Amino acid sequence: MRSGRDTDAMTSRTGRAARWAIAGLLGFALATSATPAQAHQPVRLTAGDSTPARGPLLVDGTVSFAVYASVKRGVTRGFRVGLRSGDRLAIQLLIPDSAPANRLPASALPLVTVIDPTGRRTTMPITERTPFYEPYSGTSYLYLARLSGSARNGTYQVTVTGRSTTKVPVVIGVGYREVPGVVRD
Q1: Under CATH, what is the fold of the domain 41-184?
Q2: Are 109 and 120 in contact (CB under 8 A)?
Q3: The model's pTM
């Protein structure tokens, strides 16, 4: 039979272990729930997303999304972005900073075209190769082009078109607010 002192010691150890377990679980829950809100939400374009009308709709274009695609000459991918009048329009074109993509001349890199709700077409000129390290995936990218301004009310159409015989992976950054967003097919 155990003495009262042994029982108290065991209860004390069990209580401490339970508190540590709860603290650990709480810390894990907070850490994992905070992570998605700090990184662009990924959206992957497939062969079925050959035009903006067939591609996904990013309901709120102020929310931060990373739209991934791979294109080569003759391949186009598209998606749509909803914005309200006066919202900040923010779209960036990036490629991985690795061969062969980072060695291609500007004339062989993918082109991004944005059509606003009034039908005005803007092709994003490739004017830079600014390094950017994305810590969540551990990937180094190069910014190639950026488009920003005040949005018109409605749906923007975005296409990315390949111009190289080599398949080039691209990321199109959309938005700037690190909050959960909605994507519709």
Answers
A1: Jelly Rolls (2.60.120)
A2: no
A3: 0.78
